[in-house]
Amino acid sequence: MFDKLFSTLKGDKAETQDTVSAGEQNRVAFTALLVEAARADEIYTDKEKGLIAKLVKQQFGIDDAEALSLRERAEEAQAEANDLYRFSSTVKNGLTAEEKIQLVEGMWQIILSDDARDPYEDMIVRRLCGLIYMSDQEAQEARRRVEQRQS
């Protein structure tokens, strides 16, 4: 018990993650995957940051300050991650089918927001869909819905 308390006070990330709620882990994973989509082309713009904040505000019903804090935590988590698995496993097990679709639509919104598609961006979404067991058809429909809204 004291070891866990001391680890938390020292800032040991492995220990503090145990104390983070599943809901918060889902939020961070969702947002980190949006950040991953934005950073996939190696150009992370203020427009993309604003779009991420807008998407998480809508998704989670939070205010501007909470959205900014969540995005910053997700940016840090994404920068520390070696691959998508850390976030995809959280999403796969923690989100509903509808929330997964909303995530993929959000990723497409970010990817298509700069009017330039990078092959790596497409690969990120395809890979994530495979990891969260979303069918190709569902993923293509999500992209089409976003394209229709943006045109």
From TrEMBL:
<dbReference type="InterPro" id="IPR007791">
    <property type="entry name" value="DjlA_N"/>
</dbReference>
<feature type="domain" description="Co-chaperone DjlA N-terminal">
    <location>
        <begin position="28"/>
        <end position="143"/>
    </location>
</feature>
<dbReference type="InterPro" id="IPR029024">
    <property type="entry name" value="TerB-like"/>
</dbReference>
<dbReference type="Pfam" id="PF05099">
    <property type="entry name" value="TerB"/>
</dbReference>
<protein>
    <recommendedName>
        <fullName>Co-chaperone DjlA N-terminal domain-containing protein</fullName>
    </recommendedName>
</protein>
